[in-house]
Every structure is written in structure tokens, then in C-alpha cells.
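Researcher: Batch entry, complex prediction.
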Amino acid sequence: MKLSSILLLYRLRLRTRIVQELFAVAGIAVGVALLFASQIASTSLDGSVQQLTKGIVGNMRFQLAGRSPDGFDQRMLGEVQSLPGVQAAEPVLEVRANVLGPQGQRSVNLIGTDPHFASLAGPLLHHFTATQLARQQAFALPAPIAQSMGLLSLSPVDLQIGGRIVASFLGAELLRSDIGPLVDSPVAIAPLSYAQKLAGLRGRVSRIFVKPIAGHDAEVHEGLARLAAGTLDVRPANFDATLFSQAAGPANQSALLFSAISAMVGFLFAFNAILLTVPQRRLLVEDLQLDGYPRRTIVAVLLLDGLILGGVAALVGLALGDLLSLALFRQNPDYLLSAFAVGSQRIVTWQSVALAVTGGLLAACVGVLAPLRKDIFSPLSLGHAPERTGYGGTTRALLGGLACLAVTTIILLLMPQAAIVGILSLVVALLLLLPALLDGVVLVFDRLQRPVKGAAPYLATLELRSQPARARSLAIAATGAIAVLGSVAIQGARANLQHGLDNATRDLNSIADIWVSPADPADLFATTPFHQSALVALRRIPGVQALRFYRGGFLDFGDRRIWVLGPPSEAVQPIPRSQLVSGNLTLATSRIRQGGWAVVSQSIADEHHLRVGDVFTLPSPRPTTLRVAGLSTNVGWSPGAIIVNAQDFARAWGSGAVSAYNIVLAPGVSPAVVSREVQQALGPHSGLTAETTLHRETRHREASRQGLERLTQIATLVLIAAILAMAAAMGAMIWQRRARLADMKVDGFSRAVLWRALLVESALLLGAGCSIGAVFGIYGQLLLSHALATVTGFPVVFSIGAFVAVGSFVVVTAVAVAIVAIPGYLAARVRPALSLQD
Amino acid sequence: MLELHEIVKHYRIGESEPVHAVDGVSLKVRKGELVALYGPSGSGKSTLLLLIAALLRPDSGSIVLDGHEISALSDQKAARYRLRELGFVRQTLNLTPGVSAVDNAALKLMGMGVRAREAREQVTPLMDTLGLEDRLHHRSDQLSMGERQRVMIARALSTDPKLVLADEPTGSLDSRRGQEVLELLAGVCRQRELTVVLVTHDPQAASYADRVLTLRDGQLRDDEPEPRLVSVDAS
Amino acid sequence: MKPLLSLEGVGKSYLRGAHRVRVLKDVTLEVGAGQLVAVWGKRGVGKTTLLKIAARLERPDQGTVRFEGVDMAKLREAEHTRLMLERIGWVRRAGPKSDLRMMDYVALPRLAERGRRHAYGLAREALERVGMSECAGQHWGSLSDGERSLVSIAHGIVRAPKLLLVDDPTANLDVIEREQVTQLLRSLADDEGMAVLITVPDMPAVMRAHHIASLSGGRLSTPPQLPEEPLPEDEEEPPGKVIQLRSREQSA
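Model: C-alpha cells for the complex:
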């Protein structure tokens, strides 16, 4: 058949059923949008770091990296350049700086490089030579970042670096035309010598990027390792991206899980919607078959139908998903910013687009073809046999469902790292068991309502027992069940994680009454070193009982950028007690105080096969041998943490710099009052800020909440989509029943009774689906929490989120039924005369 | 029993279609009588039935059943009237799909507040009479058209209505099955002394009535001869 | 000359409840080009089954069905559907299942060939041929029984079939409509040379057939010749609803 004729058939069908078709489009579009938006969210996170790394590194192969924030001696550059096989080497100083603009501040990665070498590097620095900045005492910022703080080019600006505030000059704004998508990255660029001056690190660099002559990689690597001599790291040039993806792993995994659940909810939404158009499509197929059209033509007609439906829906879905990601997923998790430069650019890869479009097309084609497969393959005959929708597959479905549950349980108990597989098998189990469970719920309701007089509940169960409507009813219930399952599992796991993180935050902060640390908001974990000052003035403030030095920093240990904490040994509780998972707290505490011992995160210990009492070498600027005093959670930092005392930290870093003052107050003194006095004593030009423990704890909690917020957002979206899907499908199902409703009115059923019956039916179907989903969701929550605790080592407090479960089930059911009430009311108002017309 | 007095009803379908009307119909039906309203399509006979069922309100005139005026009932009361006093047999066979025949037949009783089990028990003898004794637990989609129509008749008669209205009850059936169904309907109604108003354009159907009234252009024609069964005569 | 359609010794039985009912026993029938053949019989004697077997929409238990000399049972599925699309017009009294305009419905069987313009031209001609041009834009639901019957025939003949099969074309029709339909079927046989096989439940409709055969007790019996009496004179209904049926002058 010619394409034009197939298109004509499509148009003919569309002419009478445009509304159903649009509904189907909407269904698939929502699915595509959910999938696409969650894809963008996860690719943006990784992608922006990769972009930035590439922007700096260009085609450099190796880097010689310092381990301390102070970097290493610049003279190393000459030695690197004179290594045989080195084509080019480029020195870079990287420091965290807080730009203080007239309208707000912004934490940036200040990159100092020598314009002389910059032409060899990536596009970010490449452009740098072109600006007039090169020989000036000034730095450059991406234009959007400068504008967001109200900064103008060629104007003076203060920078807070470490504990100091230094005056500087914004020399240029970098435009998108200069540096492309990096324009959204939080970076500042300055000539190397100027950056060194700003940071107070004269003659120091953080890394040297190296490009070997082709074929001399091994030789150069060897030479670099010799120069590093165990105090510097030799890494691939783009190693930051690797470290980042390790740190962002849990976030990405949760995004992946959500993508999968969104896709499933989306597909069910679409399937519901397409089911609406099935009867009509089936009639057209029968017409064509009776006219003697071959199977090939019929499949072509249906396929085109699916492709148009899926294509239009995919386009709408992409637009919708784009909006969704703009509106909801812009914010990156703040906690990652303290260790990495993460841009806020949205990165849409062709893979995301392809995945979403393919998903949409596939859903449409499967949705169009699958329900009609019997019609397509039945030989030409008149008079169809009554449809077989009986309970043939029930036993098999039950067994399959139980098997899937068993798989989930095995994963829960034995291999929590496969949590995503576990959740998927849980979903499959749900789908397989749903028909039987739904029948059970209807049966129980049927029994319960028997003594009750009144037609409405009876009519409702009558409809739910109706076999031909079963596919639709199941699809509706399954939509609710999966959405609630996903939402309960993830929200519950999130709550458990949040609870665990809150405990860690409390324990970590409670070692002092007032914290004094650099004012940079990105310095969330107190990891920026500064040199001690104003100590005498601070100690003299009334009420201050003790002032101790706290040290902390990030350190690249294997493929992980770990967090090293150096609490003062005098602290009441140097080890956060809630975080110790193995070892004796009292013993471990005394050992930490004593020095030479460390508490190591379980995940790091596992990687390096360490047990309590074992000896290991910390790859710090001055490699230090320590013994394991105990094992802990990851203390909220996904790559893991190591706790030593502040003196050990200073020894390992070879620096007396501190990252916070811990002030302990005399009993009965108000922390708020003293904190204000401390701030005064620091003076207006100090880059340090004082905050009470309470304030600091609140700030930390907010950051961790914000990091987990995306999970809440997606869960909410999935629920909203499910509500809309169920309400629309249910409404449509009711609407198609109007002829029968009219008939019942002729028999004397009043509008009120019919409406009530429709509401009871909806509530029963949706409520059953959602409650089953909630029960499975609690199991899923257990699985996810367990996986978080054992695989990533996050602090997790186990609790059954019954409240979340009951809450989502009730809210979803209630809202969906409330929406269904409208078409239900309209349908119940049908003119009885409709029943008497042909 | 049922009295219609000078009923007038005008209405139109769409915009350009002609106006169908019931134009001053007066009619008395005695208890236990089976009256056929015979007429071609568009003669207003279905409208008349809708009026008697309180599904339409007449523009003027009155309809009295057992001394109760039913032409001006509220929606709620009209529904109650249809549920308890009326049995409406019709051409459309909208059974709830996939549900047993007996449950479909017991629907009206259930609507009156009879408990499910009792309703099923009550309707079973009636279904036996209608020849559905071995079809009680078949799903509605497993029933033939004739059987479906008999289920609908069982539903209509299940409440022992004062008045049975039948609107082209054989319209969906072929003539042989239509005849069977009509015979059954007439038989059961006679046996239970139910009052029946039957609307049809089929002369064969009309022949089951005690009295045949011909309706043409919205008016009863007493002068026209009763319809003859043309095709039967010819063969 | 070989007949276009021939049934030889066709038998068919159904399982009805517990017992087997033999609806057709050793039925033999031939229909040649240009012939209108009517199978007459009461409801439920198996007329429709006979027609379905003739189109291979059902398989006989015994016997052979030949179309243009070819054994229908030996056709492959695809060959059979092609036959139904191009050479056998099965007239569906139930109308289109999907919600189509009559014009679209009639054009449907020819859409496969050369696109829509061609198909619509043929559909217009077919509707004109049965005198239903004015129904082109209407939907099945709004047609009267007589109009439905004629439009269905248009949908059957639009493919210019060799064989037209019509199950009970006169059901639910009044006397005048019946006359129009049978006259049309006769002229399709006479003027277009189609072989037309119809079923009818009662006598008057068969009067225009070249041959009639009566089916009863599963056996087909062919009377030696057509009854010669003219149509029984029914009392003429007042005119006004008469559908003018005029076979269009075929241009070469």
C-alpha cells in the first residue's frame, strides 16, 4: 500500500477520535519528559566537571599534582621540562577563592597559569592569551558569574582566599563566544604570578600538566614518578573527572534508578492512554482484514500509527522534559562543590535525546501493536470467538511474582550492591502479583459490603469483576502501584539517609561551641587552610574557656578524593560516636588522642583490606604511617573519610595552617553573644567568620537536604504523573461507559447512586493499587537503605517509613479520586435517552 | 391504570432535522392489558414511551399511573418511579460485560436495596421461566443476542413492576429469535398479569397485543386498519 | 464453459452444546459469470455458512470449493486475502466497524493500488452505480436499512469483482426497497457479467434470480426451473421514499 494511502487511513481514524489520540500523545510525552529530565540531570553533573577538566587540560596527557593546598615548588617545572620525551609542560596554581561582589559572593576555582604556556592547553586557558590580561595584575571571570554578583569589568573587587581578604581587579569578562559552555563554570583565571601573589603562595604551583612527544608516554610517566618521589602524585591529566564520578556515584546511581522508575511509570501512563484508542484501531484492522488486506499492510498501517503517535509524543516530551530540567533540576548538590569545581551548565547529550526518543517510539509502537497482536495474526474469518481473558496465566504469574520477590530478598541479604536490580525485580514481582492481589482486595470488599444495603458499592464491585475491562483496570492500578512503590522506596531511603547524615553533622559539630573558619560558603567541611592570627584577642574574650585548632582537607587516595578530619585531641569527642561501625569507641578515642592512629571509613578500609590495628600509609604531602583505630561510616562524604588528631594532620601535611578554630565556652555562657564578640575581635578585614555550633549544624543540614532534594522532586513528579495518568485513564474508562450508565438510568438508578458507584469503584481500584505499591515500597526502602549503608558507607538510620508510605498512598488515591469525580459526575448526568437510540 | 390525557411534545434533533412530536395523544390502558403502539419510525411512538417513563416531560397534558401524576416528577422521584414501578424492555442490550447473567438480571433488585444473595434468589425463577435456567452463571459476553435480550427482560420484570414498557424489544434480533422472545415476554406478562405497552414497527410483533394502536405523525389513528403481516400473507 | 464458482459435495457440521449438528450435507452448486443465483431457506439452515464456505471464510468438513477452477482450500493465506481484496466481493451487511464516512468505506478496498485519488474515483462510481451518491458523506449510523443494503453492495462491487457474495440483502427492507436491491443485483449480473450468489429467507426476493436453490435439512435442492408467476402484487405504498435506481450507462 502506498504511504499516502496509509496516511489517509490514519487521518480517517483521527478525524473522529482526535481527543483520545491527543490523550495518548500526552501519556507518552509525560513518560518521555520524565526520562529525559532525569537523564539531563545526571549527565549535567558529570558532564560539567568533564567539560571544565577538558577546558583546562586540553590535550595534555599527564599531571604532576601536589597533595597539599599549598602546592609545591615552581622550580619543579624546569626539571619536568628537561625530562626526555616531554613536549610541553604547563604549570597551574589552583586555589579556592570567594569573590565578594557588591550583590553577593560566589565561590570560584581560581586558576593561575603562565600565558606563555597557555596556548598549549584547553580552550579555557587558550583564550586567556588572547585577553589583554596576560601581563596585568587582574583576573577574569565568566560573564554570567560576574553579572550575577553585580561586578563590572575593570573594577576593583575583593577576594577572600583562605583566612584573608585581598583587594584585586576584575580585568575581563569571558563570554560564551570565548570559552563556550564553560561560561557557566565557577572559575576565575589570572596570570600565574598574580594568582600566586593573591593566594600568598609565591613560587608555588598546584600541578604541572605534561604533554609527551608522541610515543614517549611511558618514558615521561617514569620520569615524572621519579621527580614526584612519593610526595607528589603522577596522574592522567583528566584525573579530576575520574575522582568526581567516584564521588558523585551514589547521586548518579539514584538518578539512574529514578530514570528507570520514571520510564516505567511513563510507559504505563502511555499504555493506559493507548489502551483508549485500541478498540477503535481494532475495528479499523477488522475492516481492512475483511476487505482482504494482507497482514503486511495491516502491520504497516499500525506501525505508522505508532510512529506518528510516538514521534509527536517524543517531540512534545523532549520540550516538556527540557522545561522540567530547567525549572527543577538546575541546582547542583552543594556538598560536591567543596571538593570539586562543578559548573551549573545543563548538558544535554545526544544519548539522552536518543534514549528518550527511542523510548517514546518504542512505547508507542508496543502500545499500538501489542494489544492487537491476536487480531493481526488470526486468519481471516468472520465472527470472532469470545475473547479469552480468563485466569489461565494466574498460577504462572503468581509463581513468577514469588520468584522475583525471592530474587529481591537474596539481593537484600547477600549482594546489596545490586540494589537497582533488586528494585527492578521488586517492580516485576509487583506487576506479576498485582492481578491476584487486586482480585483479593475486590473479593474482601465484596464480602464486607454484603451486609450493607445500597446499590453503589455493589455496582462498583460488579464493574471491577468485569473481565473485558480488566486490562485497563490492571494498567490503572499498576500505574499507581509502581509510582507509589518508587516514591515510598526512595523517599523512605532518603529519610533514613537524612537521619543518618543529621546524626553525623551533630556529632562532628558538637566538638566546639563556636567555629571560626573561612567565610567561603563552599567551605562546607572546613577544609580550607589559613594561618593563625588574632589568637590573643580571641582568647581574651570573656567566657572563652579554650581555643583549639581544627584541621581538615581533601586528599586523593587511590581513585577517591577522601576527606581527612583533624579534630583537636583535647576535644571531648574527637570521633563522632554515631559513625563508628567497628572498634571500641573508648579505646579508639584514647588512641586518636594519643596520636599515630586513625579512624578509617569502612569503604576505604575494604578497598585497602584494612582491619582495626592494621598499619597503612596516608599519601599526604608528607606520607605518614598510621594504624587503624576503628572503622566508620563515610561520615556523609561519599568517597569516604579518615579521622586523625590535629597534630597528626599537621605532621602529615607539613604545615601548621589550620582550617578552623574550635572555641569552647565556660558553662552558662551564651554562644550567640560570644560569637558576635569573636566576629568583632576578628576585625572587618578578616576572611574568617564565627558561627555557633547550632548555626553551623543548621547550615550543614540544609546543604545535605539540598543535595537530596532532587530525589524528593523526582519522587513528587512521578507521583503527580501517576495521579494524572490514573485519573485520566479512569475518567476515560468511565466516559466510555456512558451508554450503559444511560441504560441504568432507564432502569431507575438515580444520578447520585451512579456517581457514588463510580467513586467507590475508582477509590477501590486506585486505593488497592496504591496500597499494594506502598507495601512493596517499604520493602524497596529497606533494600535501598541497606545498599546505601553497606555499599557506599553512608550513615543510615534504619526505620520503616510507614508514615511516608501511608501518606503517599492516601494522598495519591485521594487526589486521583477527586479528579475522577468530575468526569464521573458528568458521565452520571448522561441523558437516559442515549440508551434508547441505536 | 395508565391514563394519558392530551399529551403534546415537540422536540428536534440537530438543526435541520424535522420536528418530531407527540401531538395530543390520549390513551387508557387497563390493568393486565398488553397494548401495542404501532407506527413507522418517526411517528412519535418512542417519544411517547419516553414520556411515560418520565424520561421526558410533556409540553402539556397529563400522565397518570394508578392515580399518581408522573409527568412532572423531580429527577430523583422519576428515578425512583422507574426503579420501583416500571420495567423497561428495550432494544439496546447493554449488559455489564464479563459479569454473570444472573448478576446482570438482579441489578434492579440490588438497586432497590435487596442484598445480593436474595436478589439472585428472587430473579432465578423468572430466568427459569425465560428459558435461561442453564445460562445463569454464563458471562454476559458468552450469551447470544436472544439470551441477552431475555436477561434484560428478566431485569425489567424482576421488580414486579406495575407497568412494563417495551421499546422495539426485538430490534436487535432476527425474526425467528425475535418471535421467540416476544412470545416469552407476552407469556410472562400475561402470567403475572403485568400491564404492558409495546412499541414496534414490526407488524409481527404487534400481533401479540390485546389491542394495537397505530401512531402516525404524532397522532393516534383509530381509523386505520390494523397492520397486516405482508410477508406472511405472501408466502 | 467452466463455472466461476463451484461447490462439490460440501459438508459442514458444528458442535452445538454437546451434540454435533450437520448444517450442510453434500451440497453441490455452480455459479457462472453473469448469473444471479439465490439460495433460499429458513433461518438457521446454514445459508450463511454456505456463503462463508464459498468465500473460504470458513472451511468445509468435506467437499471442494473451486473459484475459477482453483481449489480454494489449496490457496495460501496471502493468496486468499488477495482474492478477497480483488476478485471476490463479500458484501458485509454489518457495515464498517470503524467510524468511517461511506465514501471512505467504499474506497477502502481500492486504496492499495494507486493512491487515494484513484480509489475515491472508483468509490464515487460505485456509489453512483447503486444510486447512493448522496450518502457519500454520511456515516453508517445515519442510514436507513435500505440505504445500508445498497451502500454495502457498493462496497462489495467497488473492487470490480468476478464474484459477488451477498448474505440476505433484503433483510429488514420493505417491499419497494427489496425490489430495488434485487433489481440492482440482477443488473450487476446481466450488465456487468458478475457472478452473484445471494441468500434469501423468503420467496419474493428470489424472483429476479436466474436460478434458485433451496436449502433445507442440510441439503440443497434445485428446482427444475424458475417459478414463472410474476411478483405478487403488493399494495403499493404511497410514493415519496422511492429510491431511484438507474443503472448508469457504462461508458466503454
